[in-house]
Structure formats: structure tokens, C-alpha cells
Amino acid sequence: MRITIAYNLRTDDTEATAELLTDADINRIHEAITSLHHSVTVVEVSGKPNEVIERLIESEPDLIFNLAEGTIGSSREAFYPGLYEQMGIPFTGGNASLLHLNLDKHLAKTVLSNHGVNVPKGILITGRDFALPDDLQYPLMIKPNSEGSSKGITQDSVVDTRDIALTRINRLLDHYPAGLVVEEYIGGRELSIPFLESYPGKLLDVVEHTFDLRKIGGKYNIYDYDMKQGGEAAESVHVVCPANINAEEEKAVTQMAREVFDIMSCPDVGRVDIRLHTNGTPYFIELNPLPSLHPDASLMTAARSRGLEFRDALRLVIRSAARRYGIPLRSAKQTKKADIAFETPRPGARELGMQIGWMTPGVHNAITDVKGVRVGHVSRFADDVQIPGQTEKSTIRTGVTAIMPAGRAYANRIAAGGFILNGVGEMAGLTQVIETGWLETPILLTNSHSVGRVHAGVVNHMLKKYPRLGTETDVVLPVVGEADDSFLNDVRVGVCSAQDAVKAMESASSGPVQQGSIGAGIGMTSFDFAGGIGTSSRIITVSEGKAFTVGVLVLSNFGKMRNLTIDGGVVGRTLDREFDQEGRRAVSEGSIIVVVATDIPLITSQLNRVAKRAALGLGRTGSYAAATSGEIILAFSTGNRKPRVNTSKSNFITLKLISDNYIDMVYEAVVEATEEAVINAIFCSNGMNGREQRWCPPVPHQRILELLNKGEITS
User: Fold this and answer.
1) How high is the pLDDT of residue 688?
2) 309-320, pLDDT tens digit by residue?
3) Which among 520, 540, 565 is positioned nearest to 670, based on CA atoms?
4) pLDDT by residue (tens digit) across 599-626?
């Protein structure tokens, strides 16, 4: 996608420009959005409107990433969204009316108060001819009505008497003629609740700002301009995330934040500031639809608390804006057939604007959205490799993928189950999982002839962690799944080693997962296209309101092009006629390994049933479980664990499980995530060549979009 970053440059250190962005701010944001494979242009939008319009038109954006705060007047923030709307250009964040309303603090509070939101009692003063009501309770807070970044707020902003209030009002009106808010000061705690529309649950962790008043000689707990701008007083500020508040207080402030976001219809991103009174009552202070994206600001602090990197937060802002305008998230870099870029995967189905099912994906749309689950890859790619004992040379296209199931699974086993739809394949260790109902090792994926070596690598890895394994404790039976990559990879060269297995496990990380021709999937073929590793996730909210995650990762190596089905459309019927028939895999029907992870508390019998539903997801993509293929599925839940060493005096263990009244949501999530994971496995590959000059092409993104959008799949 072509994205234009629109902003106003801060050219000095005065208070007047405090809301604007520095070159360092813009460079950081530009680098992050570029790393998401978008084509990014930066446009400074200060100056004459006709010149700004010309600069924006020249940048030819699909989407404007709006950071423009404006420089003139009380409607300065609203000017730019209004301009974008008139130009017909999609943009991130709120529209003109939202930004105008919320820059007018008193008006925003009046609107929210009329909707039942608790706000401090106060008035708006716009000129010298004013009357200060006698019924306002001191101390009072006096601040500019139409400023941000705590401009005009100091430790003197809270006044204890009427005379001091009158003096301060008259002095501030000289600097802020647009008006002042005079309201009852809410003693208590300073809290911020950031919001990312595309994040599961939308609200991030509550951020609390605490102050050492002794260092600044202050009396009242307020986050003033000097603190925000990094002055000496900033050293007295401590940021706590998640805030140290009890469950009742958290419920009160998050409920208020949700009400504010719903009433104001704030899209993509925002931040609500709330004062939590010493009596536990929350008071709305401010909604900021253009929150600071500085790494130390509340939004990014809360994002880090949820495991989001800086670029992840920006990606979520772009994702929700693109969804709102119906913009496909296409990669700016299109790979040619002759230029295989293994290190740069192509976009997945959702990034291309496809919505598989109706449920919401997790932050990374990956199995790693399940807390604690990590994924690592080792890829082995080489040409002109000597075949052992022969003069012939061949090609290597293989690897190892490791799924680390959260925590120390051997010492604290994880509830698990499985299902074999068709068994012409192998997953070592699955029989024990199904029999006992517990998973106690990482899950490794590789090619058919490397299972033994990878198995040995897992044993060696675990022996280092548990030196008495097999002597004072039980032996370990690692879970290792395989698929046959011999169409592209010469399996006579056993390059996947025990050391590769260890490297894959040690490199495993949370966050985004590389997909397509990577790790164990580098030599795999799906629906006659390249691609092996795919992943996806779904968020489920049960009756108590708590969000859970279902994640799926596949090693996909099955399917005929003619059967490829995407979002219900059999696009393969047309593609099969448009692609060469020669050079396709003919001998083997391939296979697929599916790993389902969730943090929903499930017991083994439920996980066995969950695993069966993954098979339905395979069917939705075009699988018919061919006679010579293997469809093997393992499912585990981090919501139930069993310690290997029982330290309790009881002979019983207690497990928690979701009621069957709600498990249908889990089934549907597994079906959707499995379907999308298979599609992502091929969508994210740039194509792959292999032995005997074979070539598996990349799936044609644009052609598939045409077929789905134009209804050509029915022809």
C-alpha cells in the first residue's frame, strides 16, 4: 500500500509547538511503517492549503497516516481530516467533527455528561466578562480549553481560593484567548487507557502516572507541561503499566473508557484520560483521538505491556483504517517469478483484503497470539550439493520448524489431544499424547527422512535442561511431525540435523511468524503452488467477558490446484486451466500437519474434538484426504496443566473446562483459523525451485482477487 505520513514539523522548543513532531519522531514512524512492506512518503502539511493539497496529491496515497496536529486556531486538528475527506483520500484516525469536539475540552465533557458519563463540575470562560460560580468546590483546576500536551498546565493550575482563581484566570486569558476550563479538582490518581481498534478487546492495559511531589515541591497530583516535555520535573514521574489498581477500580475505569469510545465513535486509535478519585469514583478528563506515538508515551507503554513492538502498534492502526475503507493491504513489493526472495514473505490473505470467516484474528494472526507460544525456523537451502557416495549433485530445500508450547512443558505438562484424519504420515509422540492426554515436549516439524535426527535433537536439548531425565524421572517421547518434501528437496542428503532442531527451538520467539517457504515448509508444495508454513488465530469472548485465543499453525504439503478453495470460492477450477500442467507433482498426494493451540481451559476429550474440527478447516480449502496423504492434527491447551512432580498431599488434581454450552465458538474458531493458515502458507511464499529444475510457482494474488471479486469462479 502507498501510505503518506502527514504531519506538522516542530521547529523550536517553545510551548506553542509542543504538540508537533520532530524529525526524530517522523523518522522513527517512517522506518516502522516501511518495515511493514508499505511504500511510504512523508509530507509536511503546514503552510498554505493549496500547497498542502498539491503535496498530498503528488504523494498519490492509498491511505494517509494522519499525525497532523495543526498550528492555527481551535479547529486546527479538525482541518486536516476535513481536507482529506474533501479530497476523497482515506486516512487513519477520527474525522473532523471528532477532532474538533475533543479539542474543545468543555464541549466534549458536556456531550459525555449528557450521555451519563461522570465529569468534573465546571464552567467555560471565554473573556474578561465572566462570573465565577459560588457553588464550585475548591480546589479548582484552571487550564486552557483548546490545547493539548498539557500546555498551560503547571503546579499552579490548582488553586485553593477564589482570589487566587481570579488572578490566574485573568493572567491565562492573555495567553489563551480561546478560553479556559475552570472545574473542580479531582484528587486521586492519574490514569490513561489507550485504545487500538484492531487489538483484541480494543483496550490496552491501564497506565498510571505517579509523581514524587517532594522533588518538585508540588501539592497536587497533576501531570503538568514540564513533566510531559522532559523538564526537571519529569524525573519525578513514574509510569506504571499495568496500573496498580484493584479489580473493582479497573472495571470502573475501563467501563468508562469503553463508553467514551463508543459515544465518540473514535476509530483506529485513541486514549482516554481519567482521574480516579480517592473514593474510587472515576471522572472523565479527556479523550485524545491523536495520541502521542512516542515510545515513552502511554499508548506505546501499554502496547509493550501486551507484547507489541512499536511497528506492531502502527500496523494495527493501519489495519483498522484499511478495513474501514475496504482497502486491501497489499505489499508494495511484488516478487517476480525469476527473483525468489525467501527472506521477504508476501502478504497473507487478510493483508490482501480477504476476510476468512467472521471472527476476529489476534494481534499477529498467528499461533503465537496464544500467550507463551513461540515459533522458530531453521531453513536449509543449497544447490550443487554432493550426494553421499555418488558423483551426482543435487538440491537441498528443507528445514525444521519448532513450536514451543509455553512454559516448561516437561515439568508442568499441558493438556492435549489429537486426531488422525488420514494416517499416511507420521507424528512421533502423538500416540502418547492421545493416550495420556498430556503434552510434555516442544513440537518439531521437518521432512519425512529427518524425523529421527530431529527427535534426537529434542532429546539432547531436554537432557541439558533436565539432566536426570530417564534416570530419576520418566523418559521423554518428543513430538515430531513430518511431511514429504522430496518433490523439491533431495532427501538422500540428510542435512536436517539434531543441531538444527536445537537451533529452531532456541531461536523460537513470540510475535509475528514467518510463513510460506520457510523452515520445515521451504520445500513443501500446496495445491501445486509453493508454500508450507501457515498460521492464523481467532479471539473468543466467553460469557464472563474474558477474551481467549485459538491459534493454528500448519505444515502444508497437500492438494491439487483444481480444488483450491478460498473463502468458499473454488478459484482452482480457473487457475488449473491457466497454469501449465507439466511439471506438477504427480506421484505423491502430499500431507499436512496441523497444530492447534489455545489458552481456553479444555480437557483431553474436548481437545480431541477440537482437533477433529481442524479437519473441517482443511476441507474448506479443498482437501479430500487422499489415500496416500496424511492429515494429522495435534491440539493443546495452556489452560490446564499437570505438574510432573506432585507436591500436593491430595490424590486428585483439579481441571477447569469450558462448558459445552460455549464450546461451539471454539470449534468455529478452529475451522476458520485452520482454513486461513492453509491459505497463508501458499499466499506468503514467493515460489520455490528445486531438484531436477522443478518449479513451484507463487500463488497469483491479483488473479485470485479478480476471480473472487468478479465472480469468475463460477464459470
Assistant:
1) 93
2) 899 999 999 999
3) 540
4) 999 999 999 999 999 999 999 999 999 9
Instruction: At 598, list the grid cell.
Output: 489455545
Q: How far apart are CA 344 and CA 516, in angstroms?
A: 10
**Residue 644 dihedral angles phi and psi, to the nearest 5°:** -65, -40
Coil vs helix vs strand at 293:
coil
- Cα radius of gyration rounded to whole Å, the chain: 29
Query: Do 274 and 191 form a contact (C-beta atoms < 8 A)?
Result: yes
Q: What is the pLDDT of residues 442-494, one digit of tens each?
A: 999 999 999 999 999 999 998 988 888 888 888 889 999 999 999 999 999 98
> Grid coordinates in use for 702?
491479483
User: Which triple of cell numbers denotes residue 47?
Assistant: 503552510
Q: Cα 489 to the chain's mean position, in Å?
A: 34
Give the sheet arrangement for strand 122-125, strand by strand. Answer: 122-125, 180-184, 140-144, 158-159
Catalytic residue flag (residue 631): yes
Write the pLDDT tens digit of every residue in 394-411.
Answer: 999 999 999 999 767 877
The bridge status of strand 2-7 relative to strand 39-44 is parallel
Q: What's the farthest any 2 CA atoms get from each other in the chain?
A: 99
Contact 705, 580 (CB under 8 A): no
The per-residue pLDDT for 341 is 47
Residues 161, 184: contact at Cβ < 8 Å?
A: no
* Active-site residue, selected from the candidate residues 631, 672, 675, 676: 631
Does residue 338 carry a pLDDT above 60? no
Packing angle, helices 310-325 and 298-305, rounded to 10: 100
Q: Find the mean pLDDT for residues 177-192.
A: 89
Is 591 marked active-site?
yes
Q: Residue 397 is placed in which grid cell?
A: 530445500
| Gap between the Cα atoms of 591 and 638, Å rounded | 27
Which among 199, 531, 468, 169 has a CA at the least distance from the CA of 340? 531
Give the global pTM: 0.68
Residue 392 annotated as catalytic? no
Which one from 591, 623, 637, 685 is the annotated catalytic residue?
A: 591
pLDDT attached to residue 299: 95
**400, 406, 408, 409: CA torsion to nearest 10:** -80
Q: Would you tell me how many other CB atoms lie within 10 Å of the CB of residue 475?
A: 8
* Catalytic residue of the set 150, 629, 637, 685: 629
What is the C-alpha to C-alpha distance for residues 85 and 226, in angstroms, rounded to an integer? 36
291 alpha carbon, distance to own chain's centre: 19
Are 655 and 415 a contacting pair, CB within 8 Å?
A: yes
User: What confidence tens digit (pLDDT) does each residue in 263-280 have?
Assistant: 999 999 999 999 999 899
Q: Which residues pair with 140 in a beta bridge?
A: 159, 184
Cross-strand pairs, 43: 6
Report the Cα 239 to chain-centroid distance in Å: 23
Calculated CA dihedral for residues 182, 188, 194, 200, nearest 10 degrees = -140
Neighbouring C-beta atoms of residue 688, cutoff 10 Å: 29
- 3-state secondary structure string across 514-577: CCECCHHHCCCEECCEECCEEEEEEEEECCCCCEEEEEEEEEEEECCHHHCCECCECCHHHHHH
Q: Cell numbers for 125, please give them.
A: 470562560
Opening angle at CA 400, ends 399 and 401, nearest 5: 130
